[in-house]
Structures are given as C-alpha cells and as structure tokens.
C-alpha cells in the first residue's frame, strides 16, 4: 500500500477520534472494542475505505487530515460520526466503544483478506508479520484461527522502529 492509504493510519485516526493519543493509544482502542457493538462497520466500509478482493484498499482522504494537516481527522469525519473527537479528559461513552469495535472488525477483515491473498501467491504454513498493525493481537488471533497459516511470528519490534531490521535483512538477502 502507498501512503496515505494505510491500515495503521486508519486505525490511528479512530484512536485520535476516540480521544486517545496517536502512536501510543491504539492498544486502548483495541482494549475498548469488546465493550462495543460493530454498529459503524457499514459506514466505515461505505464512506471511508474501499476494500478490494485481494485486501488492498483505498481510503477516501477527504475525511482525513493526517497527510496535509496537524489532525488525523477533519470536520467531514466529525459530521459522519455525529460530532467532534472526544476530548482526552472526558468520559468514554458507548459511542467510542462502538467505534472501537467497528474499526477492529474492519481491521481484522482486511488483515484476513490480505493474508489469504498472500497465501495464494506464496503458499506456506508460516507467516511472519511486522509493522504497527502486527501489534494488534486480537487481529493476529483471528488470523491464526481463520486464516490459512499454521504458524504466525510477529517481529518483536513490529512497529515503525522495526523498519531498520527489515532494511538490514534486505541488504543481507543476496548473501544467502
């Protein structure tokens, strides 16, 4: 996927909108998801993201400001979900729980689609994951249960900081 179309940034946009700090509060959003209902799944899929059969996707960037501004979302996103982002010091409501559940469901479905497509290209019983979305343990559990892989390994520095490890492995690849 090419920036700005990113599953991690989509998840971070919901982290921001639900009043948590981007790049550190995503685990809170994931933890909040079981307390909600997936009532916004259709709205997310109809308005924010176009998911293709192979798991690739396009975001409707008119709802997001992270590529051009200092906020993750904008007034169009606010209007879609019925108001401004939750202030971090305000009480978490059922709305945030439902948003968390909805984006978690969408994330899991996309991860599963990508993995199934990858398996058709490179069949293996093993899958290695890296990147910020690989830190979503709920999605990883779903992938292990419902996906085509017997073994999943998540690189320990799975967030953006792990990019250096990937670059080193690419540089070493010709030696093997």
TrEMBL record:
Pfam families: Carbam_trans_N (PF02543). InterPro entries: ATPase_NBD (IPR043129), Carbtransf_dom (IPR003696), NodU/CmcH_Carbamoyltrnsfr (IPR051338). Residues 2-169 form the Carbamoyltransferase domain. Coiled coil: none annotated. This is Carbamoyltransferase N-terminal domain-containing protein. It comes from Psychrosphaera algicola.
